[in-house]
Write the structure tokens for this entry.
Amino acid sequence: MRHSCFLLFLSTVILFVQPVAGQKESELPFTPASFAVWSQRMDMSAYIGKPYRLKVAIRTLPADADGLATAFIRNEKPEGGLRAWVWMDNMMDRPVRDSVWKTYELNSIVEKKAPWIAFGVLSMSSGIYFFDDMHLEVAEKPGVWTELPIPNGDFEAVHLLPWQQTAQGVPIRVLGATATLSTERPFAGKQCLRVENQFFGK
């Protein structure tokens, strides 16, 4: 029931803040919400019908009982936009609340009618959430996995780009949600993604 209410609220928020043509992300108004998402998209049309998988390390420091983190993958139409996917796994059936780093895996198949994928991370409710060491692989042959580079998937760059704050496939800026690159106990390398949510008035 709680997740159904969340999805209804999320739909209302996104319909309200859809960007206009030419509007920059930094020009979007801040919108109250109880979640934060950072994501990317990738053209996978060269791999139609092939299995793919996303791996990411996650640890959480939720501030309340509703706090959780997940990763997600979506099969999307090339044009993208609001709810442009035909399938999604957002891990809501297996949310992460562990304070210890663990690696999680999500799997799907590249679809002909939706050959782009969107992928990223989500944190719900107040708290601090960490993500690191993201890998995307495709099985070009059965059982043989080939890694596809994710720009800044290791979070070792000097900036967050090309990660973008989104919800349901469109840019958004959530009031109280910030993302930074942090040297605080990364899973691998020197940095990880640190998302901090300070949501009030719940």
User: Anything to note?
Assistant: The two ends are 17 Å apart (CA to CA). The longest strand covers residues 127-141. The chain is about 10% helix and 45% strand. Residues 1-21 have pLDDT under 50 and may be disordered.
